[in-house]
Amino acid sequence: MLDNTATTSTKSKMSARDVKVFYGEKQAIKGVSIDIDMDNVVAFIGPSGCGKSTFLRTLNRMNDTIPIARVEGDITLDGENIYSSSMDVVQLRARVGMVFQKPNPFPKSIYDNVAYGPRIHGLAPNKAELDQIVENSLVRAGLWNEVKDRLQDSGTALSGGQQQRLCIARAIAVDPEVILMDEPCSALDPIATAKIEELIHELRGRYAIVIVTHNMQQAARVSQKTAFFHLGTMVEYGDTSDIFTNPREERTRDYITGRYG
Ligand SMILES: Nc1ncnc2c1ncn2[C@@H]1O[C@H](COP(=O)(O)OP(=O)(O)OP(=O)(O)O)[C@@H](O)[C@H]1O
Ligand SMILES: [Mg+2]
Description:
Elements: E1 12-23, E2 26-37, E3 41-45, H1 52-58, E4 69-77, E5 80-81, H2 89-95, E6 96-99, H3 110-120, H4 127-140, H5 144-147, H6 160-172, E7 178-182, H7 190-203, E8 208-212, H8 216-222, E9 225-230, E10 233-239, H9 240-245, H10 250-256
Parallel strand pairs: 3-8, 3-9, 6-7, 7-8
Antiparallel strand pairs: 1-2, 1-4, 4-5, 9-10
The structure holds adenosine-5'-triphosphate and magnesium ion.
Adenosine-5'-triphosphate (ATP) binds at residues 23, 28, 46, 48-54, 66, 68.
Protein name: Phosphate ABC transporter ATP-binding protein (PhoT family)
Subcellular location: Cell inner membrane
Function: Part of the ABC transporter complex PstSACB involved in phosphate import. Responsible for energy coupling to the transport system.
């Protein structure tokens, strides 16, 4: 068996060791170890049902919201165990933000969508600073120019691609360290997709970013590291260029060449 999981490095923002996830009796993740650093966008690829979303959700404890889900193993953020009883889960989810497949803005104004997190986390002492956080987040999410004159309009009135950038702005507004994206472009047209990909490039280095995608070209375009999942295991993890041109495992090659999936 190949040991292609990186050993713990001081640069790792997040580390998972031998993570297992069960839904009731059924085991969905069978011992996954991975390191995620600040410098690289990591893509998770693999056939439907192999556990990409399940594993992604372990990284900010979103599986806690699924009653039958149980997580084993160790996951650390800056060396701190995120499953320890002293971990504040609300705080954790601000530090490790998530963007979902279907854009899910709150039924509130564009402004309030972005201001929501900073308000509940007490990040802005006054209105002027909150305004600034909202503007900066929308700028960074590449949405400011499109919405600056309509901040009081409902977030749900935006186009799908704009809504997804609004959700990214909302995640950014609380100054996260890690951003998890679960197929963020699958509901978007090619132009909106290109905008999100451009945004991922711009956000790289400022946040650790993990993106689940079924789109091989997208994985190749946006990521520097790729993890291939299959049947609840992580088969291979390495430089994206190697995974796509010279995978070590036959199962990876079969998947990226479209033999199954
Ligand atoms: N809430 C849940 N309750 C029970 N089983 C679940 C739940 N969520 C996922 N599973 C099961 O866990 C396994 C992994 O599912 P998961 O959604 O993580 O796969 P995925 O790789 O993200 O798939 P896709 O590419 O289709 O999104 C599947 O067998 C799925 O049926
Ligand atoms: Mg999924």
